[in-house]
Specification:
- A hairpin with a 2-residue loop joins strand 7 and strand 8.
- The longest helix has 21 residues.
- Helix 6 packs parallel to helix 8 and helix 8 crosses helix 9.
- The strands form 4 sheets. A 7-stranded mixed beta sheet has the order 11-10-9-12-13-15-14, sandwiched between helices.
- It starts with 6 loop residues before the first strand and ends with a helix.
- By secondary structure, the chain is of the alpha/beta class.
- 33% of the residues lie in helices and 26% in strands.
Length: 352
């Protein structure tokens, strides 16, 4: 009945939240931030949002932590980002209570952790999503920084980055192993679709003459460009928009794809996988792009997409490697290598 609880969804339910005192998935800083948020928001006099009838106010709390630009795996000092998501304030009184709570929250977080970013975000829709476009930045810095494979990455609220950063390095190594298998040569081009903040493309950029990243989230593209600068990578460019349209525009510029020894592509879609537009974008990759590496966070959607790619394009599965990004849970990621086959081979297989 509007009681504020802070925790995670009850298994099998999207309307119930289990109140937690500790989150075992968090590092120390994340746990301390979690405790502070619970302490402040539970006494703020603001009702929790109820998904059953779409009433109430407090909706989500998102806590992200990163090692910072000097960090390494296992370091104790981490930068923290906290985002509080609410409905639109109902009146001035509710706004005043929220302002007081957020002010106290910032002060207490700064006492406990290395707070780099605090946001108040508004979700006016009935959709149960923590991703919002209306964000109010409450700290001077609005980003945190992560180190991975001796490269630094700026992460903003709308930028995706693997949550298990230690295993992310295993994921990147798996991608590199497939690149080695395919024999990357000097002069090769990498196209990174759904590139986010550029993590995978920049992690392997040293192997390529040039890297092209394509992403639909504008803020993520801005972060990717900054990340290229941070790491002194000057042969990577990032484009915001629909992948299919951008690939067609790039192909019209003959200097982009000409004189490349070969072209390889990486695709790292969200959990929902690739929709029809994304599959169509893959079909528009340059004709001499013969290697596609698919990084998946859902085996079910990967299987579906591999079938669609086989039906709609010339790419066929060569090999696949699972990566356990979330130990002690049923969730698993996978890296799949697809190779392009000739039309005659496709026709023969369809005829069998």
């Amino acid at each position: 009945e509007g009681e504020v609880v802070l925790g995670m969804h009850k298994k099998g339910s999207w309307s119930e939240v289990v109140n937690l005192s500790k989150c075992l998935l968090q590092q120390r800083e994340g746990q301390e931030a979690f405790e502070v948020v619970g302490e402040v928001m539970k006494k703020a006099g603001l009702p929790a949002y109820r998904k059953t009838d779409h009433t109430g106010f407090l909706r989500h709390c998102i806590i992200r932590q990163a090692r910072g630009m000097q960090g390494e795996v296992g370091d104790g000092s981490r930068e923290v980002m906290v985002e509080i998501v609410t409905s639109e304030p109902a009146d001035e009184q509710q706004q005043s209570k929220l302002d007081t709570a957020l002010s106290e929250l910032r002060a207490k977080l700064e006492e406990k952790v290395q707070l780099k970013a605090l946001y108040w975000s508004i979700n006016t829709s009935k959709s149960d999503t923590s991703v919002t476009t209306t964000k109010h930045q409450l700290t001077d810095s609005g980003v945190i920084h992560e180190m991975s494979r001796r490269k630094g990455f700026r992460i903003s609220p709308l930028s995706f980055f693997q949550t298990n950063t230690a295993q992310a390095e295993v994921l990147f190594s798996t991608v590199e192993a497939y690149l080695d298998k395919c024999g990357v040569q000097k002069g090769d081009l990498l196209i990174d679709l759904f590139c986010g903040a550029g993590a995978i493309g920049l992690a392997v950029a040293d192997r390529f003459e040039s890297v092209i990243g394509i992403e639909v989230v504008e803020q993520a593209v801005k972060d990717a460009r900054v990340n290229a600068q941070i790491n002194n990578i000057h042969h990577a460019s990032f484009h915001c928009g629909d992948a299919g349209k951008i690939l067609l525009e790039l192909e019209e510029d003959t200097s982009v794809f000409e004189n490349k020894a070969s072209i390889m592509a990486i695709v790292d879609p969200p959990r929902a996988g690739m929709d029809k537009k994304a599959i169509k974008a893959i079909s528009k990759l340059p004709s001499h792009c013969d290697t596609l590496i698919y990084v998946s966070c859902s085996p079910a959607t990967l299987a579906r997409d591999l079938a669609s790619l086989s039906d709609k394009t010339q790419f066929r599965l060569d090999s696949i490697t699972p990566v356990d990004m979330f130990p002690h849970t049923p969730h698993i990621e996978a890296v799949a290598l697809l190779k392009k086959v000739e039309h005659t081979q496709v026709d023969e297989k369809k005829g069998e």
